[in-house]
TrEMBL record:
InterPro entries: YozE_SAM-like, YozE_SAM-like_sf. It comes from the Bacteria. This is YozE SAM-like domain-containing protein. Residues 4-63 form the YozE SAM-like domain. It holds the Pfam family YozE_SAM_like.
Length: 65
């Protein structure tokens, strides 16, 4: 089964808040490298604001987490 982070990165062609989140993640040079689970991503992204964590939560629900 595919992990959440790998699944998330493939959502970049959508036209919604999840694809915006993916764009932000791909452009963030400070994002810690490695296999990211939902908790590590949430902790890192929370400084970007509620809209970002809401997009992350939506993606997580769609992923089936």
């Amino acid at each position: 089964m595919q992990d959440f982070y790998s699944w998330l990165l493939k959502q970049d062609t959508r036209n919604d808040i999840v694809s915006n989140l993916v764009s932000d993640i791909k452009q963030d040079p400070n994002l810690p490298k490695g296999n990211h689970d939902i908790e590590s991503l949430r902790k890192y992204l929370e400084y970007k604001g509620d809209h970002v964590t809401e997009a992350l939560e939506e993606a997580w629900l769609e992923f089936g987490g």
